[in-house]
Amino acid sequence: MRASRATAESDPAALGVLHPSARALPAPGGTEAPAAPGGDRRLSRATLALLGIATLVLSVAGSVRIGSSDIGYGELGRALGGRLGLSVEPLPPLLDSLIWDLRLPRVLLAALVGAALAVCGAVLQAVTRNALADPYLLGVSSGASTGAVAVVVLGLGAGSLGVTGGAFAGALLSFALLLLLLRRGGLDSLRIVLTGVIVGEFFAAVTALILMASGDADTTRAITHWLLGSMASARWDVVVIGAVTTAAGLAVVWGCAGALDAFAFGADTAASLGIGVRATRATLLVVAALMTSVAVASVGAIGFVGLIVPHGVRFLVGPSHRALLPFTALAGAVFLLWADALARVAFAPREVPVGVFTALLGVPLFLIVLRKRGEL
Length: 376
Hints:
The protein is mostly helical.
């Protein structure tokens, strides 16, 4: 007893000092501080879940209406009803195409990408025990940028890949390099962070070199717009891929929720609880990298979603990943939906890259969260 207490006092990580969420996690023995009655907590989370789902549905409907041409809820209902085979008055072909082929894929893709990035941020913050971790910590976004630039500027694989395919190939290449560099030294948190930074900086430098070599101002401007994130090229096939990837990834990481809770106490504590630390970390890194790769390849590198959303949700529902992950997905979807809607109308008819607005919205929200947590 005395020895274990001395160990805790000499090791701040055991008390969760290095990871703010660890202070409220269950103790390794499975007991939990009685912060609130179990029934009240479940009711609160159930209420939040219903509110979150309702907010997401209303946000999707509201975001479809926003744009250069206003669309009423009745017109949206008729477009959906017609596609579902219901007996409704058909819309004019141009308006029907605007809703079904342009607005709805864009809105759904924004929701899926927001959910994926937010969940990846929560996972990597737990795996690396780094409160500043986000989905781009692994260098995937830099690799995706290099792949997209190589297709547009150099024409590599332009006939078969396209920008989306090139970005995805670049993201996988950067992650393969990360795994190669981590192969011998292990998957401890510090090595993951440092190696991810190295890989990201390398591919960022390659991207800059390619852009400098192009010498075409219009191409550089178009690539820069894509790098900051845009939903303008959303299509139904991309939405389907994003939906499958996000749903499968969320299912896998939610199944590892207990391991993510244990990681907040450190690898040694997780191992003492019977968790295969190396295999679980590798699985979570692969899933996070794939989800991020699909998201970045689809819409570009949209920052701040994976950083700010998990912290805000953790403040509302607590640090347990069993609740944190689904609520983070909901919040990330709603956040990016409205950021994209704002990007469409703020400077209409010109569209601003959505990454600009996620940063503008994310910075003050992050400051508010830090203030509420007493860390600012």
